[in-house]
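Per reviewer request, we include the raw input and output of the structure prediction for the construct analysed in the revised manuscript.
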Amino acid sequence: MRRRRQKRQFLRSTNHILDISPAGRNIFVSRDKQIQNHKARRIKIWMRVVSVLAVLVSLGAAALFVWSYLIPYFQREFILPPSVTEEDPLLTGSMAPLPVYDDMGLPVYDNDMCLFVINRTTPAEEGFEPVLYTAESVAVDARIADALRQMTAAAQEDGLALTFTEGYVSYEEQGRRFDELVDELMNGDEGLTAVMAKTEAASIQPAAGQSDFQTGLCVRVSGSPETFGDSKTYSWLRNNMGKYGFVFRYPEGKLNMTGMKPDPTVIRYVGSANAAAMQQRSMCLEEYVAYLNSQ
């Protein structure tokens, strides 16, 4: 009777295990099955470890990205430390103030850019070159590209095909053009001397470093200088280009100021406010700059 009252024992062998199920029934589990279950548990544990490591690596990468890129970006764009002043060199580039836009949706630039001029009295150095951008098939200062495109689109809406044949001209190219014209005048029918040829050429084709085309703010409209003044395109430009910041660079009757013979095909960006003031006062660029300097 004592043997019957003894607790049931788990039966073990080298090949099998006899266990008791929760329902009180004996369940037979082979050793191979136990090994498979053990391996499965180990695989699950390693998968969990790998998943945790992957999450930690992802969090570390995200934190590094935020620390290295986002925080400096917001500091540059939105946070100006009290110790940084406008004279600080750090205020260049991305720290520069955002541009203001006019009624046409075009950026408004200061006069250091709009009224920067290259001529005989204020020549440019050989290495000077603005940041260029190709707009309407010509290279110009990148800052006036939108104004040139908008003006061209407006002319097209009014039925005019506004095209351009010339934009930025480099120092070297301007020197080559000047020398060619001098040789042409010396070897032509008039047979001018070198001094006379250079004097005559300078009023038509400036010498290297003396052309306002080097600023990237001038463009030449398709057409002949002799007949362009009688064209519909000229009338449209005279009435509309000021809204986009452009003026005639070498207008009639300003030879003494510009040093260049009149050429209505050349227009120049000065900004809409300056363009309106120049038109109101019938001033060329050199005349207007002198007027402002005298105030």
